[in-house]
Fold Trafficking protein particle complex subunit.
Amino acid sequence: MIGVGKIKQYSNVLDKPLSKGKQEVSLSAFAFLFSELVQYNQTQVDNIAELERRLEDAGYAVGARVLELLCHRDKGNRRETRLLGILSFVHSTVWKVLFGKVADSLEKGTEHEDEYMISEKELLVNRFISIPKDMGTFNCGAFVAGIVRGVLDSAGFPAVVTAHFVPVEGQQRPRTTILIKFAEEVLRREARLG
């Protein structure tokens, strides 16, 4: 037949290219699965700090895998080597893949040279979670902080990453800020690179 393209057959699933595929996951499915993750971990711990640590650990594994996928698919197996480059990559590319949009803001800390903040008005993981009064300081953003830490660690930028609520005047819900405090070795390497 003339005009009919040849369809390439793959003998093994590992031979298929990593295409972008469908970009969206049902929000209700994600909310249900994330709720189950939180509830399961809640039964395994005694306090809020331990629950947040477990959510951060789960996010860390996701972050490491997201970095590998994005570097392979979008960047030709190249990774960022500069501090501002990796922060921009997390703020824009990673955030867009995970949440469908770029993060609201990326800021450098004013008090410390090694601190950066990614802020989000309504972080997806906090959107459908109602926190009981006895767990007042609990922040599901710990999962996203774990994702960010996983991306940064896997890219060679070790950091302590935490999630915090920041009250906003005139709004009922506080915004979530992901605080990134880089290790001293990262700052020394960045100073050497100039």
